[in-house]
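Notebook B, p. 112. Complex prediction, attempt 2.
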Amino acid sequence: MAQSRKAKAADGGARLRLIEATAKVMRDEGYAAATSRRVATEAGVKQALVYYYFPSMDDLFVEVLRAGAEVSLARMRDALTDDDPLLTLWSLNGESRMTALNTEFMALANHRKVIRVELKAYAERVRDIETAAVAVSLRARGVDPQAFPPVVVSMLIAQTARSLCNESAVGVTLGHDEMRAFVERQLRTLAAVTPGSGR
Amino acid sequence: MAQSRKAKAADGGARLRLIEATAKVMRDEGYAAATSRRVATEAGVKQALVYYYFPSMDDLFVEVLRAGAEVSLARMRDALTDDDPLLTLWSLNGESRMTALNTEFMALANHRKVIRVELKAYAERVRDIETAAVAVSLRARGVDPQAFPPVVVSMLIAQTARSLCNESAVGVTLGHDEMRAFVERQLRTLAAVTPGSGR
DNA sequence: GTCTATATCCCGATAGAC
DNA sequence: GTCTATCGGGATATAGAC
């Protein structure tokens, strides 16, 4: 379990601890606070060790993004195969745990090419998975894919959930109750459609 | 025109230039690059002058946010009174000009209280204006406000437009064409409803 | 694999001349 | 209102001992 991939974990876990420490600092204080000294202290090692494991701070950021992406993608794949995919999509994207970190990477991606490339790849993998699950769900309910393309439905649900999270993070809650009620009403209505009635 | 408010512009425009320079640096290189030295150089003044006009860098950031908010709010008020408010809402929020700066302030707001408070106030003023305009438009078309609350419709349109912008900024365009077609089809359908038919 | 030490540079903020 | 000069500190990254 600690041996995640290849022979990467031949150390005392310092590499992994550095990645986790960096994620924590970015989440709590922003990417600008995630300096080599700061994350080293957080991980319980000395500053120079950061440069033994990562060529530069940008490389460390990329590894943090990659690690988080793998975890998120795995959870998403699991969750979208069972249950009602639409409802699962709504809950998964509404988790506030990853919100702040996502925002940091979004800002970073706007100014650092390596981050941008990595984030784009991740976002498109997520969209593919979510859209596939939504497609199955909509087809089973006989929803016309011309009128409601699966990719549109998956984007609407995911983006709305994430927007509520982002706004909550800065204290904005105006209209949130109404929006949640609306989305959940729509999802219930759709779920009530007799599966196969459209055949 | 250069005399915006009170007697603030008793200088040679240095204060305003500092605000604009800070916005530019934040947009181009991120908030972490907007240091007192960097923005001073960009504005053509010396670093110490920043602290003559602003007590701290955070205060400068707040002023940048305020200035941008005033401009955006004014444009929004103008645009939403004439034309089709729903379509205007869609276009205004789809402008990419402000996207990067908004993302920076979002990230900043997650970790700096003064920014968070200011951004929250701005976001709620925007929502109020947009919702009011949408309410008028929906009522004129006889849309049931129970089934489609104006605040929900305004959030959906605005958030979707902004999400497309944010994604485009990092190179993600998967599903964008479908989403744009979908939204514009919905807006056309709604616009085609004979005004007053619901009376 | 982890450390100490160091080179080189930039940071926010203040004091005080003009 | 704008400047020069400076304090105290932190940044990335490297060299080299253990």
